[in-house]
Inverse folding.
């Protein structure tokens, strides 16, 4: 009689190790400065540094970075394989929506800037997703 062994713990451990290695490419100061440079001009009446808004931006920048890093295994000849592009768009969109909902719920700004906010949040998330993709791709190339 054979035994059934679950591979899930091994997969999770491998994924955790990949994320730890990928995060070595990232500096917290870079996330903070990018978030501040992007969002402070939009939130004219909001003190950004050391706020809950900064924490949300950092959390979701990390999430976007790791998501991009995970997609890096599907990069072929320097470009994300076509069949994974839609999944990447959905991942970016999900993170963008989460950050936008959080920001629009806590920060009161004129309605004219709300449309700008959505665009800026998308730029911020996309930037960090692409940085993760680049970092992951670089790691994969170094392994070859």
């Amino acid at each position: 009689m054979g035994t059934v062994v679950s591979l899930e713990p091994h997969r999770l451990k491998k994924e955790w190790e990949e994320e730890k290695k990928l995060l070595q490419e990232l500096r917290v100061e870079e996330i903070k400065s990018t978030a501040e440079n992007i969002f402070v001009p939009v939130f004219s009446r909001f003190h950004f540094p050391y706020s809950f808004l900064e924490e949300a931006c950092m959390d979701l920048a990390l999430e976007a970075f790791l998501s991009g890093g995970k997609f890096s295994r599907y990069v072929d000849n320097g470009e994300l394989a076509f069949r994974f592009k839609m999944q990447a768009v959905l991942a970016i969109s999900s993170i963008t929506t989460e950050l936008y909902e959080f920001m629009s719920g806590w920060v009161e700004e004129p309605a004219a800037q709300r449309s700008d906010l959505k665009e800026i949040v998308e730029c911020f998330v996309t930037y960090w997703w692409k940085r993760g993709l680049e970092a992951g791709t670089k790691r994969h190339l170094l392994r070859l």
Helices lie at 8-23, 28-39, 52-71, 82-106, 111-143. DSSP finds five helices and two strands in the chain.
